User: What shape does this take?
Amino acid sequence: MPPAAEQGRTYPLARPRSLAHHVSRFPRTSLDRLLRTIPGFPDPQRELEQYPTPPFAALQLLEHAWQAGDLAGSVADLGCGTGRLALGAAFLGAKVVGVELDSGALEVARQAATGAELEVEWRCEPVENWVQRVDTIIMNPPWGAQRPGADRPFLQAALATAGSVWSLQPAVSDRFLRRYVEQLGGAVAGAWPVDLKLERTMPHHTRERKTVEGTLYHLHPVGAR
Assistant: This one.
């Protein structure tokens, strides 16, 4: 948990520079360039499963959400880490809130937003505290490798507060994911395979790179659309 002084802290907004929402074609090249400039976790914590979302996976999520018209309004990135998804959504014209438990990661995100001149509201708080209604939630939650069920609070919060949810999840958990989403009163509107190429970032990693099979899910509460 972050120190009491950090919990619920809202960081200042950076200056907006997004022009992407004024164009009709998806700005793949410029967005990809931005995503690759955003740093990873300064001190990744194994118990929090702090693996940065690879730029290509982030690009795929953002492109699908943009094409669906889900980045035109209010967006929240739950468990935003250092802000790769949140900043990408802001670049594409969304009004974004990034929620993260780790104050150190959030400071990296804030600095990245300032450098890119993008406007994002950063909140240092656990996902269980999230109750704000937004149009869309984007996220790459913990996959439960260290703490089984770690993604459940994220799915609960997302489906309770947004009309559209885009989430990266492990491919091997497809059956569980669909069943759990149904239990929460939601539905899977779409699913696409995504390979996440992870770099060696923690002492227990034995390889420099590892590819993990993931799935990008589009979820929404029943009756939302």
